[in-house]
Design brief:
Keywords: Cytoplasm, Methyltransferase, rRNA processing, S-adenosyl-L-methionine, Transferase. The chain is α/β, with parallel strands linked by helices and 249 residues long. It contains nine helices and ten strands. It has helices at 25-33, 42-52, 66-78, 99-107, 121-128, 147-154, 170-181, 205-213, 231-248; strands at 8-12, 36-39, 58-60, 83-86, 111-114, 135-139, 160-165, 186-191, 199-204, 222-226. It has a five-stranded parallel sheet, sandwiched between helices. α2 links the parallel β2 (36-39) and β3. It starts with 7 loop residues before the first strand and ends with a helix.
């Protein structure tokens, strides 16, 4: 590696979320210089490496094996081996494995560096047209346990909310959010970002639920952006609560 980065042993390297041109020159250099690439799926990352003309040893590092492999990786990193951690698409550690390895590296005084680059929620947020001054990234909602509790907690959220969702759950999620946040809440669904069939659809939560429920098939990773609770909604609810209190007297 270059002299300025000699002490870094682990690099978090963002990879394109679709369009293969969305990778930085620095990312290409780091992938070419490290000793090993840690990949969520070695087949997916292998195609990217081949596209870039790079050949490196690759190790599988994903949600189902990270706890079993982290100690072995730490031993190698502690001896000075350099590694780049990549996910199938986007920035590793955002709704993808990476946190555990980073935390353990830092606890052992091993230097970690994160390169800036592609991530899906930023273009989806900006394309939604909602306020981006303050927002909350929620990632994937719980599939079963804790899902309703989390939805209720979000009912009072005034910031723009960003979710990742799978194609087979998007309709259910839109319907449940409509029930919790109200039928007038505006939202935006982006899919296939940076790809040939990129699409962003805006509307109320029920409108979006109906739109996607009426499709024969839904493909691609999805980013859902939901407008935060507006001041008018809070005023209406407070008035409703006050009227209920008076009627109870």
């Amino acid at each position: 590696m270059s002299d300025t980065a000699a002490s870094t042993v682990l690099y978090l390297v963002p990879t394109p979320i679709g369009n293969l041109e969305d990778i930085t020159l620095r990312a290409i250099r780091v992938l070419g210089e490290v000793d090993t690439v840690l990949a969520e799926d070695t087949r997916t990352s292998g195609r990217l490496m081949q596209h870039l003309g790079l050949k490196k040893p690759m190790l599988s590092y994903h949600l189902h094996n990270e706890h079993q492999t982290v100690q072995r990786l730490l031993e190698r990193l502690g001896k000075g081996e350099t590694m780049a951690l990549v996910s199938d698409a986007g920035t590793p550690g955002i709704s993808d494995p990476g946190f555990l390895l980073v935390r353990e590296c830092l606890a052992r005084g091993l230097k970690v560096e994160c390169l800036p680059g592609a991530t899906a929620f930023v273009p989806a947020l900006l394309k939604s047209g909602f306020g981006a001054e303050r927002f909350t990234f929620e990632g994937f909602l719980p599939v079963k346990k804790g899902r309703q509790t989390r939805l209720k907690e979000l009912a009072s959220e005034t910031r723009t909310m960003i979710f990742y969702e799978s194609p087979h759950r998007i309709v259910k999620t839109l319907e449940q959010l409509a029930e919790t946040l109200g039928p007038d809440r505006q939202a935006s669904v982006s899919r296939e970002l940076t790809k040939l069939f990129e699409e962003t659809v805006n509307g109320t939560l029920p409108e979006l639920a109906a739109n996607f429920a009426g499709r024969a098939a839904i493909k691609g990773e999805i980013v859902l952006v939901v407008q935060g609770r507006e001041k008018e909604e809070r005023i209406k609810e407070d008035r409703y609560a006050n009227n209920e209190d008076r009627s109870a007297d």
